[in-house]
Amino acid sequence: MMKRLIPSTLFIIALTLLAACGNDQRAKGLVKDFMKNDMAVADYDVVTWSALDSTFRINDSTLSAMRQRAVADKLVKQQPAYTNATNKLLRITLKYAVNKKDTQQTTFYLDDKVTGIVGVKQN
What we know:
alpha+beta
């Protein structure tokens, strides 16, 4: 009985880790596309990425305020291509250097299926 349990458990752990790595890479790709298309940030160097993490703390009113502030602060273009929000959001923070000198840190919020950006804020 124990001999069957250990390989099954290790297999499940391995699958979970592979899925997490895939979501992480997909999120980074979505962030890069969003920066290029909706933020007009083309010339930047990645300093560090945070780990992809989840949150349930962003409600509709918070997300709406975040989106309005991003436009007002000229962080994003006038009508960025946001994805619809889900109850659970994922977030990833990017610290990057613009024009090799000005370091900025931005947090990107994604839907739980990692299909698009739902909000962005400058830290």
